[in-house]
Amino acid sequence: MSISRQNLTVIIVTFMSENVIHNCIKSLPDDIKIIVVDNSNNKNFKDSIEKKYKNIKCILSEKNLGMGSGNNLGLEKVHTDYALILNPDVVLEENTLDEIFLASSNIDEFAAMAPISKLDDHPNYKLNQNRALNLSEPFEVDSIDGYAMILNLKKINNLKNFTNLSYFDENIFMYLENDDLCKRIIDNKGKIFVVPKAKINHIGGGAVDSKYKKQIELSRNWHWMWSKFYFNKKHKGFVRALIIGFPSFLSAILKFIINLVFKNKNKKEIYLHRASGYFNALIGNKSYYRPIFNISDQEN
Fold first, then answer.
1. Is residue 85 over pLDDT 80?
2. Domains of the chain (ranges plus CATH)?
3. Rounded to whole angstroms, what are the CA distances from 3 to 79, 103, 116, 134?
4. Hey, what long-range contacts does 205-209 have (CB within 8 A, 24 or more apart)?
5. Which of 106, 124, 179, 247 has the highest local Cβ count within 10 Å?
6. Cα distance between residue 89 and residue 131, in whole Å
7. DSSP tag of 37
8. Among the listed residues 16, 22, 2, 24, the one whose alpha carbon sits nearest the alpha carbon of residue 150
């Protein structure tokens, strides 16, 4: 079965994303079901977006679940065969979905599929070996970025070691949850494809309103280090995770000290958060860190 508008649901996880999500939604056909999972638990946002777009159902999470858990919450409500996971700062081109639909009808089996990012310097896929690619036809890859990925839900559910509706590892708050899902798909003989004729624009780091930039930056640095250690420990073992992450941890400590001496408060905080993320993963703490918003943040 190929993908169509009738058997596809779009899931968008948001967190204070009011300023960017409308461009994303407007790039989607208005006859496709969209589920928005709002991690900021904003009832006004829910009311306004459901009133503005008749094809949208907005779910308020009781707390900030992160990307993986937020997507899982949305996936629980999906009744179609396919789900398109989108970040709110992604905009599709006019023919993007048509190219996806066409590609899906010509590929025998796939567990996941993605359009291609127009940012050539930052491809949204990974290959474990260098090989020539034919960018006029869909090609198989080892992983795709989570900001735009289509999941073949029936296929994934039938893969060995997959539990229904448990797609993303909920231990991961943000970063590498998509890599973890893709690795489990590949390890269980599933196939992942990129469709080069289906193009998207991704702002990158623009999913949250810019007035919260500082707190989001601290959160990103903390979670990148935590998630990298956790991912490597899960798939490569504790020792490998320790070895891979230690140089970045040591660098963060040194840069923290330098910026402490030179009284650079912003950089000092960033490197402290990097070191803290690694250390907390190392000692087995959960990915507990969440951005802190106060009145001054919201007024700036």
1. yes
2. 8-202 (3.90.550.10), 210-299 (no CATH)
3. 14, 9, 17, 22
4. 205/89, 206/20, 206/89, 207/14, 207/15, 207/17, 207/20, 207/87, 207/88, 207/89, 208/15, 208/16, 208/17, 209/16, 209/17, 209/18, 209/19, 209/20
5. 124
6. 30
7. E
8. 2
Mean pLDDT of the chain: 90
Q: Both tokens of residue 281?
A: 């993963």
Q: Identity (one letter) of the amino acid at 98?
A: D
Contacts of 269 (CB under 8 A, 6+ apart): 218
Judge contact between 10 and 32, C-beta under 8 A: yes
What is the C-alpha to C-alpha distance for residues 139 and 119, in angstroms, rounded to an integer?
18
Model pTM? 0.90
Q: Residue 37: is it exposed, middle or buried by C-beta count within 10 angstroms (0-12/13-18/19+)?
A: buried
22-32 pLDDT, tens digit per residue, is 999 999 999 99
Residue 159 is predicted with a pLDDT of 86
pLDDT digits (tens, 9 = 90+) for 187-228: 999 999 999 999 999 876 655 666 677 888 999 999 999 999
CB 74 within 8 A of CB 35: yes
Burial of 248 (0-12, 13-18, 19+ CB in 10 A): middle
Structure token digits, residue 146:
């989570």
Q: CB within 8 A of 211, min separation 6: which ones?
A: 297, 298, 300
